[in-house]
Design brief:
Pathway: Protein modification; protein ubiquitination
Oligomer: single chain
Strand content: 5-15%
Number of helices: 17
Number of strands: 17
InterPro entries: E3_UB_ligase_RBR, IBR_dom, Rcat_RBR_RNF14, RWD_dom, TRIAD_supradom, UBQ-conjugating_enzyme/RWD, Znf_RING, Znf_RING/FYVE/PHD
CATH superfamily of the largest domain: Ubiquitin Conjugating Enzyme
Shape: elongated
Family: Belongs to the RBR family. RNF14 subfamily.
Catalytic activity: [E2 ubiquitin-conjugating enzyme]-S-ubiquitinyl-L-cysteine + [acceptor protein]-L-lysine = [E2 ubiquitin-conjugating enzyme]-L-cysteine + [acceptor protein]-N(6)-ubiquitinyl-L-lysine
Radius of gyration: 47 Å
Helix content: 25-40%
Distance between the termini: 138 Å
Strand order of the largest sheet: 1-2-5-6
Number of domains: 4
Largest sheet: 4 strands, antiparallel
Organism: Zasmidium cellare ATCC 36951
CATH topology of the largest domain: Ubiquitin Conjugating Enzyme
């Protein structure tokens, strides 16, 4: 009669070809059972405790190398089942089993519970062959994730050192399973083996690698950053429940995926640089270096520098057109020291290109925390900020050392700065000797002599004695404010005067504004367009305005009195135009020819920068005919 053990092992070999029977021991076998939970198993990796009395929380706060982290695993290292069938099996003894795992990820208590279950099944089935039932029991427990979700912790608790091994194993197994399949490319629509395809990490859409490489390489080369996204037209249009969303979420591909597709590292780096530059330029909070030859952005935790290893690149900005929030292992540690430094120096900015430290308010070199500064562009101030700055400039005096604004409500003018403990004068800002601070007010000849108790009731009290007022920085600020107010008042008065002229003389046109160079305008002037009637004086305001509009070169009023008499005598002219001068005796054509010839001569001299050598006395006694009349 055939041994029942041989019959059962033969049946198991037919069902599980991977069953290995020991050639030296025919009733001993091993079988690897893959662990693929139906629902991804939640594993929590905890920092390693240094002593039995130390808790996980203590290890995390004592500078442990790892922090607590939750990871969902879809593939886990297999269970190895060791079978040993005794001679009394199956009638008088249960089979002997032992379970082991790679990387020791399954707790020993769980393994011991599974091993004990084989005897329970043997009793329940009435002392018969139960190997297949036991293997099926273990597989069903693996599909349920060994019921860790029903434990007190609600997950599998493992040391942090095992995280990298288990995550790498899960990725490798998923890739092996994917490579064995066949998929239709979403771009070229041809069936391809999984080894020639790539599955997007976020959405799971599958495309062949050649199509992805061609598209993304062209998009990055052309600078189309927003085009580096999943190429499925419906990607991002559905929510988690499969319902269509109002606005499609446009999520860009992470550099790690581009490298996994086979795209060159130089191309991926260009993509990361353009993506970061785009976000810096679109962020209104970004400040740039004040050096004109640099203009680099200031360092920011929101946009960290691009690392040398692109696989560790982290995008901290969370938006619809950016990456998802970084994983816990990618998030930078927010130490207490760095947060404190940011709080203490919120105005400090450091250029990431030239390493210049400057103030993000006034864009000057870094001047410390307590220095009073103003924005480089006052138009950037809101109404509240502008009112605050105006109040500080009008009602405070800066410390002579740290420039901290100081306001006095009552008392003498000896001030003691609470920031730097400097003694100074409230009126002029002069540094005072802490050993004898009142010497400044008692020395004859100084600007603040016997002025210790001026403004005893503060800035709103009595006026300074003899109208001397403040000196030093506060005096300069007051003068600048008065100058600005006077300039604004003058501009308003000028605008009002122009408006009054337009109301009183509506028919008089505005004088033309000729921006044409004088040499070009003179060359284009039409001398023959002058008529005799233009020599007649205008009869009304309309005619005067028309002549001003026509004349491109308005003439100044002619000289009168003794100066003009001397000039006429030297030129041999006895009177006005046409009294014996050449202009009065010649015809109009000769006069026009002389005008044109003299104009061309003057232009020729001007081209050679020799116009200073031209003298109007060379025209003789008829130079008045060469004056361009009002048109």
């Amino acid at each position: 009669m055939e041994d029942e053990r041989i019959e059962e092992l033969g049946s198991l070999t037919a069902i599980f070809p991977e069953l290995i029977i020991d050639p030296t021991k025919p009733f001993t076998a091993t079988l690897e059972l893959p662990i693929t939970p139906t629902t991804p198993l939640l594993a929590r990796f905890m920092p390693t405790v240094a002593s039995p009395t130390e808790t996980y929380a203590d290890a995390a706060t004592n500078g442990a190398a790892h922090i607590e982290k939750d990871v969902r695993l879809t593939q886990l290292p297999p269970l190895t089942l060791h079978l040993d069938l005794p001679e009394a099996y199956p009638n008088d003894a249960p089979p002997q089993v032992k379970l082991t795992t790679q990387h020791d990820w399954l707790p020993k208590e769980k393994l011991a519970g599974l091993e004990v279950e084989v005897a329970t099944l043997w009793e329940e089935y009435g002392h018969c062959q139960i190997l297949f039932s036991y293997i099926d029991y273990v597989q069903q427990a693996a599909e349920r994730g060994f019921d860790f979700h029903q434990s007190s912790d609600g997950c599998l608790i493992l040391p942090a050192e095992q995280e990298s091994k288990l995550v790498a194993f899960a990725i490798q197994k998923e890739q092996e399973t994917f490579n064995k399949g066949t998929y239709d490319c979403g771009i070229c629509l041809e069936p391809k083996k999984g080894s020639a395809c790539y599955r997007m990490k976020r959405c799971g859409h599958v495309f062949c690698r050649l199509c992805l490489q061609d598209f993304y390489n062209n998009a990055i080369t052309e600078g189309n950053v927003t085009g580096v996204a999943c190429l499925d037209p419906d990607c991002g249009a559905l929510d988690a429940d499969g319902r269509r969303m109002r606005v499609k979420k446009h999520r860009l591909v992470h550099p790690r995926e581009l490298l996994a597709m086979g795209i060159e590292e130089s191309t991926v780096r260009r993509y990361v640089e353009m993506k970061r530059k785009k976000k810096l330029e679109s962020d209104k909070t970004t400040v740039y270096c004040p050096r004109t030859w640099c203009n680099g952005p200031a360092k920011s935790d929101k946009y960290p520098p691009i690392p040398a290893d692109l696989t560790t690149y982290v995008d901290n900005e969370i938006s619809d057109d950016s990456d998802d929030a970084p994983d816990n292992n990618d998030a930078p540690a927010n130490s207490q020291d760095s947060k404190k430094a940011i709080d203490l120096a919120d105005r400090l900015a450091v250029c990431e290109k030239c390493q210049l430290a400057f103030c993000r308010v006034c864009y000057h070199g870094w001047h410390g925390q307590y220095v009073r500064c103003y924005p480089r562009n006052p138009d950037e101030l809101s109404a509240e900020e502008r009112a605050s700055y105006d109040y500080i400039a009008k009602h405070t005096s800066p410390c002579s050392y740290c420039n901290a604004p100081t306001s006095k409500t009552h008392g003498c003018n000896h001030m003691h700065c609470t920031q730097c403990s400097t003694h100074f004068c409230y009126l002029c800002g002069f540094y005072l000797d802490p050993q004898n601070p009142y010497l400044h007010f008692n020395t004859a000849g100084t600007t603040c002599y016997q002025r210790l108790w001026e403004l005893e009731e503060g800035d709103d009290g009595q006026a300074p004695r003899d109208g001397q007022g403040f000196l030093g920085p506060r005096h300069w600020e007051q003068e600048a404010a008065e100058a600005d107010a006077a300039e604004a008042e003058a501009a308003a008065a000028q605008a009002q005067a122009e408006e009054n002229n337009r109301i009183l003389f509506p028919d008089v046109p505005e004088p033309p504004h000729n921006d044409m160079p004088i040499m070009v305008a003179m060359a284009q002037f039409d001398w023959l367009d002058l008529t005799d009637e233009e020599d007649e004086p205008p009869r009304n305001a309309r005619q005067r305005g028309a002549r001003r509009q026509r004349n491109a070169f308005p003439q100044n009023a002619p000289a009168r009195g003794g100066a003009q008499a001397v000039r006429n005598h030297e030129r041999g002219r006895g009177g006005g135009r046409g009294r014996g001068g050449q202009a009065g005796g010649g015809n109009r054509q000769d006069l026009e020819q002389r005008r044109q010839a003299e104009l061309q001569r003057f232009l020729a001299l001007a081209e050679r920068d020799e116009e200073e050598g031209w003298d109007s006395d060379e025209l003789g006694n008829d130079d008045e005919d060469f004056i361009i009349p009002r048109r």
